[in-house]
Design a protein that fits this description.
This is DHA2 family efflux MFS transporter permease subunit. One of its GO terms (molecular function) is transmembrane transporter activity. The protein is an all-alpha fold and about 525 residues long. It folds into three domains: about 25-215, Growth Hormone, Chain: A, CATH 1.20.1250; about 220-280, no CATH class; about 285-490, MFS general substrate transporter like domains (Growth Hormone, Chain: A), CATH 1.20.1250.20. It has helices at about 5, 10, 25-60, 65-90, 95-110, 115-145, 150-180, 190, 195-205, 220-240, 250-275, 290-320, 325-330, 330-350, 355-380, 385-410, 420-450, 460-485, 500. The protein starts with a helix and ends in a 19-residue tail after the last helix. Mean pLDDT is about 80; it is low at about 1-25 and about 495-520.
């Protein structure tokens, strides 16, 4: 028996969170373990993009398969997030965290050993599903492990880890691919997870305290199946249609996907009446600010899905840059996002409210337009230092949006539904990313196909396709700006432990209530 068993009686908490968590001196070790797992997941999302050209060459993968290496992960992650959180509430968050990190490690090994593109895509789907079991437990474990007056500091540390993951993922991917360790080319970007995952599994079993909700909601597996089917019917034909010359069945699937989503909504209403345990709490969408925030999250995910994939392909295939050169080019962007995010939450939003998010959308538009102009002016001779200005402007815009968006969306949500709403925010963002990655077939590869490339024209074609894709990004950001008018003018700040700091009794919320959306 591990030492965690000794503390299971005092460490297990119900939904009321009444356990005296401050007495658990091992909480900082537990924090290090779950944050390492969160960091591993974040890096795994961003590390893959930079290695995509190497994967494409080594496995002779089609562009459709390459899209599914990224979109498959996002789709499996999105489909399983809410269910993963519910499973943790029912069977124990520590148990589900350990199952998730073990499965994630095995899936990483399968990705690193993939013999062909089909095996890699299947392994990425498994990896996304395992991340969906692991990630929801991270914030829940933090919540039940730390007393209210410590959580503000802990969530600040968590935000720093998120920023570090965003910065280090592309750089680490570039270095591992460039170094070609043991002649393995891109494979170390997945195999590096093995020692981290094994260490997390061993230490997590020993130091993380078990917890579960006293009144956990039941699983809605039918809801999960319907929403996953609807997404697949929309995203799979988008991704594969170009290669298959847009077959009739693809158009039928895409047209039928709204019908499946309609059936999903009807079933969720039935499920609510039957046992009060729907996958999605539909009453949340009656809150105008929440419905608008979900629309922003979905469309913002589309922007991210399109931009980061076509940007990588443009730099490495179109411009012929090495992975390291491409990875270093993105550093100013990541730094700008982190700096603007901190300023947005601490200084700007409390004073200017919703206008900060709208300014972020317009700033991103300005950065994208500058990028379009530079890409057209310098063509295939463009250098990283010339990209720095538009990337910094885009990064500042993104930082102004991503940090305060969760508070803005949750501002008017009833407290008892905060956990469900927070999970839905993250799920929607991942769905948007998967949809954006699917759209790359249309907005990027479609342009390249039309050019009927002759030898020596690849660079010009990729540069033109990149500029065309950025115009789509501008259009979607315009939609985001307009929808933001429905957000509350002054979003409430959901600051953990505020009451405790002020000297009041720390009123504990259920473990899943105070979880901020985990965005990758």
């Amino acid at each position: 028996m591990t030492s965690s068993t000794t503390h299971s009686t005092t460490g297990t908490t119900g939904a009321t969170g009444s356990t005296p968590v401050a007495a658990d001196r091992r909480r900082w070790l537990a924090l290090a373990i779950v944050m390492t797992a969160a960091f591993m997941d974040l890096v795994d999302v961003t590390i893959v993009n930079i290695a995509i050209p190497s994967i494409e060459r080594d496995l002779s993968a089609s562009f459709g398969a390459i899209q599914w290496v990224t979109a498959g992960y996002a789709l499996a992650f999105a489909a399983g997030l809410i269910t993963g959180g519910r499973l943790g509430d029912i069977y124990g968050r520590k148990r589900l965290f350990l199952v998730g990190i073990a499965g994630f490690t095995v899936a990483s090994a399968l990705c690193g050993l993939a013999a062909n593109s089909e095996m890699l895509v299947a392994s990425r789907l498994l990896q996304g599903a395992m991340a969906a079991l692991m990630v929801p437990q991270v914030l829940a474990i933090i919540h039940v492990t730390f007393p209210a007056h410590e959580r503000g500091k802990v969530f600040g540390m968590f935000g720093a880890v998120v920023g570090l993951g965003a910065v280090s993922g592309p750089l680490l991917g570039a270095l591992l691919t460039q170094w070609n360790l043991f002649g393995l080319e891109w494979r170390p970007i997945f195999l590096i997870n093995l020692p981290v995952g094994v260490a997390g599994l061993i230490l997590g079993r020993k130091y993380i305290t078990e917890s579960r909700a006293d009144k956990a909601m039941r699983l809605d597996l039918v809801g999960v199946a319907l929403v996953t089917l609807g997404l697949l019917m929309l995203i799979y034909p988008l991704t594969r249609g170009r290669e298959l010359d847009w077959p009739l069945w693809g158009h039928v699937c895409m047209l039928a996907s709204p019908v499946v989503f309609g059936v999903f909504v009807a079933y969720e209403r039935y499920k609510t009446r039957k046992d009060g345990s729907p996958l999605v709490e539909l009453s949340l969408f009656r809150v105008k600010s929440f419905a608008a925030g979900i629309a922003v999250q979905l469309t913002f995910g589309v922007v991210m899905g399109i931009f980061f994939l076509v940007w990588t392909l443009y730099m490495q295939i179109g411009l012929g840059w090495s992975p390291l050169k491409a990875g270093l080019t993105g550093v100013p962007f990541s730094i700008a996002v982190s700096a603007a995010a901190g300023m947005s939450v601490q200084k700007l939003v409390p004073r200017f409210g919703r206008k900060v998010l709208q300014a972020g959308a317009l700033t991103m538009v300005a950065g994208v337009l500058l990028y379009i102009w530079e890409a057209g002016r310098y063509g295939t001779g463009i250098e990283p230092w010339q990209m720095a200005a538009p990337l910094i402007v885009m990064g500042v815009g993104m930082g102004l949006i991503v940090a305060p968006l969760t508070d803005a969306v949750l501002s008017d949500v009833p407290r008892e539904h905060a956990g469900s709403a927070s999970g839905l925010i993250n799920t929607t963002g991942q769905m948007g990313t998967a949809l954006g990655l699917g759209l790359v077939s249309v907005v990027f590869f479609g342009v390249i196909d039309e050019k009927r490339l002759a030898p020596g024209e690849v660079g010009t074609a990729f540069a033109d396709a990149f500029q065309g894709s950025l115009w789509w990004v501008v259009a979607v950001l315009g939609v985001i700006f307009a929808v933001m008018f429905a957000l509350p003018g002054r979003p409430k700040q959901h600051l953990e432990g505020e009451a405790a700091t002020a000297g009041d009794a720390p009123a504990e919320a259920p473990a899943e209530e105070a979880q901020p959306a985990f965005t990758a």
